[in-house]
Specification:
The chain is of the alpha/beta class. It is built from 14 helices and 12 strands.
Length: 373
């Protein structure tokens, strides 16, 4: 039995071999017809990766991905966007780089616990910043004077909250005023059009030092063939390139070509279809659970590919244990609340990027568990 002290990825790992896996946030739904055609092109993409310079394929993948999501001002010049195996690898590189200059990071609370774990694992002290004040007025000057970096996940995982353009602008200006780094994890950006304004234009105009982590792995069911992208401001002043070279040489041109083609398909209508699909799955979850006593949904405006369910009577760990008896795996929310796990005690996070039939069956069994108190 995995104890509550385990991290979220350990909980997700337990679900990988279950047909009723609604735990991890990776895309595991069936391919669309357009995506199926791309998979049929894999031999051609492999041949292209052998034939063409990697840098050219990488630049095309970056352009297709950033343009799809409205990030037209991303820094396309050589070395400003570093392709990594995953967003977690990008996070490790950024954490190690921050530790070369920074002692304390103000981190949004709650958020996915591997962000906190990687920052702490590299010797950084963390101060929690709750979402309401983060999305409200200016951050306190006392807080900003005590940290070297503000780290925000937007859209946030698991809440789905998006840092709006005006709020990002002011936060970046505050970071510039205090000469501290603003770091963003935008791994769920693709699901929410409210996060498709040009973040890079806002960040550059502010004059602050900034770093952004992007992720292709949440959007498309590519069997975890993906890339995390680490993007830094021109005057970031951290040893990111050196640490990157300590960890990897680069990402396979086959994966980069696959990302380019999936981004092109998304721009031709696939992204709108994905949004409709996720909204439909969210409606299925809410309809199946809405009438249960003591059950509610704390993130009514979320558009990301995950949904939190809050309930009374039992902890998320207890519900998880009961679900496991039916071979259903969701994700208890304690560890998202990395500074105060008790805040997440009575919630589960459900992954929505799943084919409709296994999702429906998983939620039916969840409803049965919640009813059998």
């Amino acid at each position: 039995m995995l104890q509550s002290k385990g991290n979220l990825t350990q909980w997700e790992f337990l679900a990988l071999n279950s047909e009723l896996n609604i735990a991890d946030g990776h895309a595991r739904q069936a391919l669309s017809p357009g995506q199926t055609k791309i998979v049929d092109e894999l031999p051609l993409l492999f041949a292209e990766g052998e034939r063409r310079p990697v840098e050219q394929i990488e630049q095309e993948a970056h352009e297709a991905y950033f343009t799809l999501l409205g990030q037209h001002s991303y820094p396309a010049e050589h070395g400003r966007v570093m392709s990594c195996y995953s967003s977690s690898v990008a996070m490790e590189i950024l954490s190690r780089a921050l530790a070369a200059e920074v002692e304390t990071v103000a981190l949004v609370h709650p958020t996915f616990d591997n962000i906190a774990d990687l920052l702490r694992g590299n010797g950084l002290r963390l101060l929690p910043v709750a979402e309401d004040p983060l999305h409200g007025e200016d951050l306190p000057r006392e807080l900003l004077a005590s940290v070297g970096c503000v780290f925000v996940t937007t859209p946030n995982n698991p809440t789905g909250r998006v840092l709006g353009e005006d709020r990002l602008r002011r936060l970046a200006e505050q970071c510039a005023e205090h000469d501290i780094i603003l770091a963003l994890d935008t791994s769920f950006r693709g699901f929410d059009p409210r996060a498709h304004y040009d973040h890079y234009a806002v960040l550059d105009a502010s004059g602050c030092r900034w770093a952004v982590i992007e992720d292709t792995g949440k959007l498309w069911p590519t069997l975890d063939l993906k890339a995390g992208l680490l993007v830094g401001s021109e005057h970031l002043g951290l040893p990111v390139e050196k640490i990157y070279s300590d960890i990897l040489l680069g990402v396979s041109p086959l994966i980069l070509a696959l990302i380019r083609r999936f981004a092109e398909d998304a721009a031709s209508g696939g992204l709108a279809e994905l949004h409709e699909f996720i909204a439909g799955n969210r409606a299925v979850v809410r309809a199946a659970l809405a009438d249960l006593p003591g059950v509610d949904f704390p993130d009514p405006d979320s558009r990301t590919s995950v949904e939190r369910v809050r309930f009374s009577g039992r902890t998320g760990t207890e519900v998880w244990e009961a679900l496991q008896e039916h071979n259903v795996f969701a994700l208890p929310c304690r560890q998202f609340h990395w500074a105060d796990p008790a805040e997440g005690d009575r919630m589960l996070r459900i992954a929505l990027a799943r084919s409709r039939e296994p999702l429906t069956e998983s939620v039916r069994l969840l409803a049965a568990v919640l009813e059998s108190r």
